[in-house]
Amino acid sequence: MSPKVYKAFNDIINEHYSGENIDKVLEIGTYHWSLLDIDKFKNSEKTGLNISFSDLEKKMLSGKFTLVEGNTNNLSFADSQFDCVMSCSVFEHDKYFWKSLSEISRVIKKGGLFVVGIPIYMSLKTDIKNTTLTYHRHGLSYNADFYRFSEQAAQEVLLDGYDIKYSKIVRKYPNPYLVIAGIKK
């Protein structure tokens, strides 16, 4: 996660929850630089989810928030449990991202905020063979880089069932990146 991406998440959270407390927040794809460290969450019940955590990550994150190892395609949480769910650079690596979106919709409360950061595709002067540099860097060797989304796909697919409140292309070069957020209807 770049500082610009972190700042975009931080700005959205602070603007949306200005003057409010957030009871329960979930980050999908938690790792050592966590969105759960955003100051607005200091009094929240924080849960970080990832497929797995290394011993070093467990040591670094232990005590800061609850760590859960699991697959977003089948979350172990109760319905309508979270006020806010965040995901940064996860869905492009999720072979069955639509299952994860369904699960997120199930665990986020009505009126809850869903914030997503994803690499997007758009035409750039630096495109290589009609793709972005990020895919060129990850490509097949990464073994888990399945998708790039358009801004329209983010709005109409990833945030289907949400009223979009924020949408910002955080950077264009070398890999276009969008942070978008909506309120669950």
List the helices and strands and how they pair.
Layout: H1 3-16, E1 24-28, E2 45-50, H2 55-61, E3 66-69, E4 82-88, H3 97-107, E5 108-119, H4 133-142, H5 151-158, E6 162-171, E7 177-184
Parallel strand pairs: 1-2, 1-4, 2-3, 4-5
Antiparallel strand pairs: 5-7, 6-7
Describe the structure.
It is a single chain. The protein has 185 residues and is α/β, with parallel strands linked by helices. The protein has a single domain (3-184), classed as Vaccinia Virus protein VP39 (Rossmann fold, 3-Layer(aba) Sandwich). The chain contains five helices and seven strands, in the order H-E-E-H-E-E-H-E-H-H-E-E. The protein has helices at residues 3-16, 55-61, 97-107, 133-142, 151-158, and strands spanning 24-28, 45-50, 66-69, 82-88, 108-119, 162-171, 177-184. A seven-stranded mixed beta sheet has the order 3-2-1-4-5-7-6, sandwiched between helices. Strand 2, helix 2 (55-61) and strand 3 form a beta-alpha-beta unit. It is globular.
